[in-house]
Design brief:
The protein is mainly alpha-helical and 89 residues long. Helices cover 73% and strands 0% of the residues.
């Protein structure tokens, strides 16, 4: 591959690494929100906005279950996106 092709591939790899890191950060914040809602019973969580993470997750799952097979396929795709192996550096 020529240098220009390697340069573009490097840019694409950096964008992919950035997107992976952002996704992992979002999942960590989601997990933190669920744990905090359980610990504080969903009321008066310090430094947390007045939102209910558990209710939002339940709404998403309820929406997927209402779609039947299409919801199951969507859940399958999301599961595999979130559980893909970490890219090698």
């Amino acid at each position: 591959m020529n240098r220009k092709g390697e340069y573009y591939m490097d840019i694409i790899k950096k964008i992919g690494d950035w997107a992976y890191s952002l996704t992992q950060t979002g999942i960590s914040i989601l997990a933190l929100g669920i744990v905090l809602e359980i610990l504080f019973n969903g009321v008066g969580i310090p430094f947390w906005p007045d939102i209910s993470v558990v209710d939002n997750v339940m709404g998403i799952l309820k929406g997927l279950s209402a779609e039947g097979l299409l919801g199951l396929v969507g859940a399958f795709v999301l599961y595999h996106i979130f559980n893909r192996p970490m890219p090698k550096k």
